[in-house]
Amino acid sequence: MPMPPVKICGVSNDEAIVAAAHGGATFVGLVFFSASPRHLGVEEAAKLAGTARSLGLKTVGVFVDPDDALLAETVACCDLLQLHGQETPERLAEIRTCHARPLIKAIPVAAAGDLLRISDYETCADRLLFDAKPPADAVLPGGAGRRFDWSLLAEIPADLRQRCLLSGGLDPNNVTAAIRAAPGFGLDVSSGVEDKPGVKSPAKIRAFLKAVRRAATMDETS
Q1: Catalytic one among 78, 79, 131, 171?
Q2: Among candidates 126, 168, 162, 173, which has minimal Cα distance to 4?
Q3: At residue 142, does pLDDT exceed 70?
Q4: Is this structure's pTM higher than 0.85?
């Protein structure tokens, strides 16, 4: 099968972006959430976006319940907008109207019932991202290396899978299993390619993307 789309989320330097581009990633994520160790200022994000776009990557702005002012300030850096908070379908419609960017909506998953939210968002979001549901007292909605039961995704219909991304606890060692558990999904990785929170490892990015390519090639020949 072809290599699935991959997003390297939470980049903060050119070296990580170069590793992502050379390894075959599709997207890099720029985080605009002050509680995150991956948070970027607007000027820094603009420079990184320029590097990413020059290498053929699309930039995804990652937000948690953003207000209009933050979106207006940062949207020029973003080819797509990822909403990782409690945004309603109505809020997604407002953001799309104001900013004319494709939208990714994160759906936190801990049990099969969480997938019922798909029906709320599949018509107002261009892509759906499935991430592990954080503990109730967590500060961050994602990027903590938590996994959920990937077998829950088996019920998602094939025609929707091409619009879906799997996130949560991915790393170079388990991404082959993730691809087999969620065929047709794109992949989103953050902490699994870091040396410490907020510091991406170019070597781990390369290893992750190499594992994705290898898994895709194995499926083609099997």
Answers
A1: 131
A2: 162
A3: no
A4: yes
Enumerate the H helices of the chain as residue ranges.
14-23, 42-54, 68-74, 89-99, 118-121, 158-161, 175-181, 202-221
Give catalytic status of residue 65 as yes or no: no
Q: Could you please state the CATH topology (level 3) that the domain comprising 6-221 is classified under.
A: TIM Barrel (3.20.20)
Residue ranges per structural domain of the chain: 6-221
Q: What is the three-class DSSP state of 145?
A: coil
Per-residue pLDDT tens digits for 102-129? 999 999 999 999 999 999 999 999 999 9
Does residue 98 have an active-site annotation? no
Q: Alpha-carbon distance 146 to 73, whole Å?
A: 31
Residue 184, sorted as left (phi over 0), alpha (psi -120 to 50) or beta, turns out to be: left
144 with 138: CB under 8 angstroms?
yes
